[in-house]
Amino acid sequence: MEEEEIVGFLTISMTRITGYQKNSTKESMIVTFCMTVSSLWCNSGIINLLTEYKVVKNTEAFQNAMLPGLIAISIAFFIIGGVGTFQNQGPLSLMAFALSLANFHLTGFFENRKLGASATACNFMIVSAISLYLVAIRFFPLPAQKNAPLVKKSITFKRLNKNRQVNNPLIVTGIIANIISSGVYFGRLVGITNILFVGHVPWLWTSGLYQLIVFFTSFWAQDVLYASFFSFTAILNFSEGYCLLIGPQPSNESILPFPFMIVFAFIFLVLACMMFLRNVFDGIYTLLFAICCAMVSYNVSGITHNAVHTVIFAASILNTCEKLYISNTDVKISYGQWVTEKIFFRFRFIKLRQRNGNHFAHLSCFKNHKADITGHAFNTLAAFCIITENHAGIILLIVTGCMVHISGLLSVSNGKTLESFAFIFHGIMWVVWALIRYKAFGSDIRNFNMAMPVICFLMVNSLVTISVLVLNKAWFFISLTLQILLIVFLLNTLNILSVKYIIAFSILFGVVCFYCFLTALFNAIVEKPQLPWGEPFIKRNTLQHTSPKEYPQPANKVTSIMKIAEIINEGGLCVIPTETTNVIAASCYFPDSVKQISQLNLKNMDNEISLCISDLVQMQAVKYLFNGMIWYLIEALSPNPIGLILPKQGCWLDCLGLQNDLSYLGTCHTVTLYVSDRQVTNQVIDMVGPLAIRFLGKECQELCGQSCARLLTQVDGILLDAPFKEDSGITVVDCTQIDKGLIDVKIVGSVSKIQVMDIFNAITAGQANGMDTENSVYM
């Protein structure tokens, strides 16, 4: 049955082709459907392989292994089919319903060999027929109807649905993985399966694997809470799968280390509190996993543990329905905001942080500036893994070490060199530590060869401890306590100190890491007040480090661009170059920064604040809100530098997450949207999202020492690039009257007025003849 497993993994790859980077509801549903189909084939193939190699020994064991997962995944397909029906996605809903019925009939076939075989085959034939039909119309599209009546288009704007969360479509996949994993324990509670054994491990471990995929994509979408949540649930599924792999213990005690699961419960509890501030329902849903961890610590397969998973099973079904349907329609739901509003009214000093860049999941820079949250969390878990000496603690130490290592790799892309190096070092250290513990497990072997890796780690951590003196006090205490812990472990390896000292300093290190996790998560969600990291012991200025505030940064260095992007990401103001002149830029997701730009008073400075993007892909989320002629005009003029004066009416700015900047952008009725073609400008925008810009005067085209000094008194950084070309310029087109067939070229740049009018006339003529102008007109 290797074919089923291969098809399952291929289906994961196909989700990228089927539109993971699209921003419409349809593609999100397709991604969810493909990932669920992939889970079905992966699990079926693995269980069949286990049966072939006699791990699952007989027909009854095979039935017990398959039934809980099949029922859970059938419910998931049924939900997808129901939501697809309500959203008028006929082929998708039919395939989902057919797969759901096929799996339900397959469960009946296990009970009675004369029942369900024909129905299962018919449903699979329906899925195959629909799939062939979709392939056929993809490669052989139906001929377009000629002389189609022209539909008059105008600038009309649809009402924004604030519940829509299309930037991270794999969230539903992660919740469906929870349905499958908790469905195993649900099946044991209601009697679907007689025993929990190794045959159920594939359902748990593949669910954990899929949630790791959602963990990566959530960081891509800058959804910190869900990224942390699914990384934790993935480790929980791996842990529970390991328990089933080992089997019940004779003493009926928990296989997993008791301190590990208790600390895991506290981590879920902290995450639930942060979820509660955003969404009351998600906070309650996360709280169930905290209860589950507490129950697992006492009993691996008892009735209480199964009952908690049954509640999670039901809650996951409801959560899947909500995420697939309510979040993609115009149905309003409060998510319990009235509770949080009362809390914020009572505690007025609490202010939530706005989600930066949440509506732009297509930025070329893989932004993971909050990956240190998971790094600190898994460091905490690793510290409590080494308290108990058993095989489960060793395995969990390896897993958490790998997760710390991954968090370090994710932090690299944000330019956090020191923090990322520390996390990568910690991850490698935990894995090697686990291997040393495994070699010495159950014996009193202590020699110098086993101490050599610890000595190497001591030397590296000494360098890290000295380096973090310029970072903050929290990181210094992490490195210092780890240094003490390594010294104690070295002395224990040489039979000088007992293991009690390792336990004591492991707890101390875990407490420090837990505080860092709490601080990083709290500061990522709450804008004020902020939990303190502590001032660095050594200021960077004493080491003669140059900061962007002191000296302009040359644009020919990648580190300079990353410094400017980091300043803008933190709400600062920076001077960056464009095609014609320099501009003062701020992130659109910091209204206070945009307001600060509007209050600047410099000589010959443009009074209007405009919106600047780097690629049309960033506007895909609001494409359906625009007149088609505007969109065709933008596509035809791209990638040349252009500016479009667009009406402010409607909610297309709200849909981009810029509702708090409306009073500052543009004029009362219009806003100018610039599509940049300068490489340096686009690199900055790709790192921080859309920018609010205000053009400086012509005298600031070439920044000299005096002008730089004057600007640095009002901005936080300056990015210097090569001199501006004389033939370069931005063509500005007024599109406010395009529904009447009129446009006006306000400023002529690198694209002449004749070229703009020729393109517009070609688009108008094409639509008048009923032609598809989307790919017919280009520069």
Automatic annotation (TrEMBL):
Keyword Cytoplasm: yes
Protein name according to UniProt: Threonylcarbamoyl-AMP synthase
Gene3D superfamilies: DHBP synthase (3.90.870.10)
Catalysed transformations (reactions): L-threonine + hydrogencarbonate + ATP = L-threonylcarbamoyladenylate + diphosphate + H2O
MF terms (GO), sorted A to Z: double-stranded RNA binding; L-threonylcarbamoyladenylate synthase; tRNA binding
SUPFAM superfamilies in UniProt: YrdC/RibB
Family: Belongs to the SUA5 family.
Subcellular location: Cytoplasm
InterPro entries xrefs: DHBP_synth_RibB-like_a/b_dom, Sua5-like_dom, TC-AMP_synthase_SUA5
Enzyme Commission number(s) of this protein: 2.7.7.87
Residue ranges of the TM segments: 30-53, 65-86, 92-110, 122-140, 170-191, 203-221, 227-246, 258-277, 283-300, 394-412, 418-436, 448-469, 475-494, 501-522
EC category name: transferase
Gene Ontology annotations for the cellular component aspect, listed alphabetically: cytoplasm
GO biological process: regulation of translational fidelity
Keywords linked to the UniProt accession: Cytoplasm, Membrane, Transferase, Transmembrane, Transmembrane helix
Residues of the YrdC-like domain: 558-751
